[in-house]
Write a structure and sequence with these properties.
- With 317 residues, this protein is an all-alpha fold.
- Helices cover 58% and strands 3% of the residues.
- The protein folds into three domains: 4-91, Arc Repressor Mutant, subunit A; 119-197, DNA polymerase, domain 1 (Orthogonal Bundle); 208-315, ATP-dependent DNA helicase RecQ (Arc Repressor Mutant, subunit A).
- The protein has a two-stranded antiparallel ribbon with strand order 1-2.
- Helix 6 (125-142) crosses helix 10 (177-197), helix 12 (231-238) crosses helix 13 and helix 13 packs parallel to helix 17.
- It is globular, with a radius of gyration of 22 Å.
Length: 317
Amino acid sequence: MEAKESLCTILEAVLAIKKSHPVNYIYQFLKGEETEEIVENGHDQLELFGSGESESIDFWKELVNEAVKQNYFEIVEENLLITKDGKKFLKKPKSFKVRGDDDDDYDEPEEDGPQVEDENCVADIELFTQLKKLRKRLAEDKGVGLNTIFKDNILEAMATSYPITVKELMDIQGISQDKVKKYGKEFCELIHSHCVANEIERPEDVHRRTSAKKSGLKVAIIQGIDRQIALDEIALSKGIEYDDLLEELASLIKSGVKLKIDYFIEDVMDLDRVDEIMEYFETTKDSNLEHAREKLGSDYDDDEITLVRLKYMSEQI
């Protein structure tokens, strides 16, 4: 369904609110919910307050999910931020479509036809394939379209965050509560069996990452670390600088994703030096990188301090 005006509405709302806020706060603002925080911030007095009350929360979640995919928004530490492309869209709106409740078969691919999977967007291809087979079986049994069960982007999220309870499933952005009630249990059981059979340690609270939680690069990083691929090799394979990769790791950890990089640290650093730097962080309880550089001095290079800092931060989750 065409949602150009709705996208403009939420873009204008985020700009009107000015300071960054969690995406759920934006939904509440659009729906005109007079929460304590909204009233305290005076946002209930803004002209756009309640401007999206005619649409459901599921609609706004679906719209934001699609807008993030098209780079009109980004989610950083759960806050909804407008990108340069989002600001350009406001100046010159164009067609923007989302799948409404009545659009279950909109652009739906044939499950048995040739398809190209974007492996950068799916952490576990094997699980993703199993989830699609389950969806197809349920759709055939109930005589409905594939997307009436769950859309591909929802299956991709399942194959990344490994939800094994209905509650965890509900944390996936853009998922419908009604669909979770109808079909969620079977998908959770499949995911649980897959994790047990393959001895998979699930990323903790990956669903809470911003949907950041869900950019192709971040997913590829989580997948690479899960497979214990050297960090410099992950950076090389993704075409980014090693320092940029370390910044991405810090961002993931700050958003609540526990990353185990001991395998790499043990390979590139002397363990005595690791213990010495770790002792500083554990003693000071200060993870500020600049402070660590000043205190530890030139005896340790930046990469060593940064890697051990990431290890320390991850262990605090």
